[in-house]
Amino acid sequence: MACSSESSVKFSSSDLNTTAMPQMSGHVEQNLQPVLFQIYGKIWNVQARLGQGVSASVYRVTSGHGSSAAVKEFQVDPQGGDYGYLKESSVLEDIQGHKNIVTLYGVFTNHSPLGVATRCLLLELLDVSVSELLVRARNQGHSMWLIQHCARDVLEALCFLHREGYVHADLKPRNVLWSADDECFKLIDFGLSFKEGHQDVKYIQTDGYRAPEAELQNSLAQAGLEGDAGCTAAVDLWSLGIILLELFSGIKLKETVRSQEWKANSAAIVDHIFSSNAMVYPAIPVFHLRDLIKSMLHHDPKLRSTAEAALISPFFNIPFAPHIEDLVLLPTPVLRLLNVIDDSHLHNEEEYEDIIEDMREECQKYGSVVSLLIPKENPGKGQVYVEYANAGDSKEAQRLLTGRTFDGKFVVATFYPLSAYKRGYLYQTVQ
């Protein structure tokens, strides 16, 4: 539940680790990374800067109780209007409660030791972004399981957002993040969002993911001219179509979608991308995904699919298993250890119980273990499944256990979907 109350944050010099701060000379540096925030009476230490834009910076913070969160700190508004902060906080407060939208915990004002007051959002801390997944793709497309998971989650978020009357207006890979604890993708960054029919932002969307009508409107605004009508929710579907095409191809398409060839016949380019990758994927899902993406990329926004219509695509009726790469890239509270147990150990009850106890003892060094399973038969025979109390513990265990030896064997540690584990469904993952 979002908290809309304000917290006024004040620091004294004794609150600060001054050795962590660069020397100041002559002017106030607004981009100085804070060392800590005091939020609702509690101290939160800054662990890292996660991102920095023109109007705001985002930090990973932790409390003394082991809780983690993100703080989005807006730059000082020279006009004193705090427009960006007020815009995003009001939108987020209005759309809270959907599992595929980042959770707003609260808002507060930060008073730095230099006397600068900044407005901040306290947000749910998320994990890897689709942008990072694309970097790791190394020009190879991601699995159908991952593409389907991302497409469904984003469409669910857009259905909710559009029903509430909002347009996200800046959908891009960097604004779609994985939630390790909730095991789904979520939308972030609503700084350009607006109520459909009441567009209050002239320049929307990011180059490479910008719909044709937004491109036209931005050009008119730059020339000081007014367009006939504001952009609609259809701009979000265009952006998602490009994101899914990039996930399928493993290639950033910014230059492609800016080309004259794309503007002349984008459908032919989509067909070419799919025919080039056709040997990698099974045929029927490829056709369904291609048609889904093409339905989002009509140049006429009136012909473009809606989020609700896209969700009933046949592509979402096909069950996929994750690749092992997916289970390495997307953290969950469940860890799966491979190359650990010999078959011979599984059928000697005394040895089996000893191994269970040894594995539990070892895994508890990295966090609170909720349950541990070593199947004696396929699927999952001889693999170790460890459910941690939270994804933070499983990520630490994965980092420290990978490459370790257990009974003379090198351990391979991946994550595993908590939902499947809870149902007792053990994927035969595609290698």
Automatic annotation (TrEMBL):
Identification of the protein by name: Serine/threonine-protein kinase Kist
Cellular component terms per the entry's GO annotation: neuronal ribonucleoprotein granule; nucleus
A Gene Ontology BP annotation from the UniProt entry: regulation of protein export from nucleus
Protein kinase domain segment(s): 44-316
Origin: domain of life: Eukaryota
The gene coding this protein: uhmk1
GO molecular function: ATP binding; protein serine/threonine kinase activity; ribonucleoprotein complex binding; RNA binding
Residues annotated for ATP binding in this entry: 72
InterPro entries reported for this sequence: Kinase-like_dom_sf, Nucleotide-bd_a/b_plait_sf, Prot_kinase_dom, Protein_kinase_ATP_BS, RBD_domain_sf, RRM_dom, UHMK1
Pfam families attached to this UniProt entry: Pkinase, RRM_1
Keyword Kinase assigned: yes
